[in-house]
Amino acid sequence: MPYLVECLASVEAQTIDPARMEVIAVDDGSTDGTGEYLEEFAARAPMSVTVIRQENSGGPSGPRNVGLAKATGRFVFFLDADDRLGPEALERMIAMADKNGTDVVLGKVEGVNRSAPKSMWGKTLDRADVYTSNIKFTLSAQKLFRRSLLEQHGMRFDESLFTGEDALFTLEAYLRANGVSVVADYTCYYLVGRDDGKQVTKTGSYTLRFDSARALMKLIADMVPAGDKRDLLMVRPFLITLLPQFGPKFLTDSEEVRRHKFELAKPLMDAYWTPGVARRLKVHERLRLHLVAMQRPDLLVDVVAFVKAKKQAAAVLEKRGTRLYLIYPHFRSRAARIPDEIYLADPREARPFLGYREAVANSFPRRALRKVRRTLRRVLPGKGFGAAAA
Known about the structure:
390 residues; 14% strand
């Protein structure tokens, strides 16, 4: 409360026939009148409403699992009590699933007094590829799931996790689904920022973030063989969950906390940090995680301070402008002994720099063709390549 009032109003406003809807509301030990309001709503709502009241579980996984066990519809949607739906949300998402036979549908999310993911809403997609699209960067539970998929694989939220449990559930659904669709031309979900700032995602010890990263990385490793596809998915937990633990907050952490973070990170870096993941990151991201992998907190402090200051790293161009290195701290330091490749910018990061030339993708065939031409000229002096080929 009071966010629940608008949340339930958005449910009542759905354009889908109320007879096709069931609402299962789990009051997880609230003390602010939520339970009483849910009972009132159930008594007057035009759709089926089940209210379950229980002792506080300490996290979102338990209540969601309770609700999921009671669900009977073809699809389920997890709506947080702080947030609200667009009026046509369920109608559009179900139509998309039925049209394409897909098991998961992402509806466009818009933030209200808080940020929301943006990179995956560029285009409505009947089918999105989990590996190459940006849907892997939105793993919250607020998706439409075909219930038969969840039941077939016995999928439930991990109640041992107090943050990141939705990422684990959603990514598993992406990987097991008979396709994933994206509704990008209509705002289906409004992610509402609370005035008290008490969203679950903003609270909790740093150790919980490592628990979340560990679980997600293990899921990916268990479900996807080693190689490019696994590396593509591993970018998400490294970038979104692990890297922030070695951001600006690291500068104010005590020596004990810094040491503990490195201890927690070591088995993850040893098991899952690969060149394929590293090359898909920006230079400063790759450099920080490389130093974590090398267990060098002393060097990391300098890099984090540089990044926090929002300085533009200088650049060094080599190989006739086709290789560009960004000069973050410890570049080519004999004492640090960090490989040059860690500082090498990929074309996307290098293009804004004057003098950078993107290497020709087919340079090897071009070199081979030049060699053939030289050979033919020696064999058939005085004749052009065209005449010799004819």
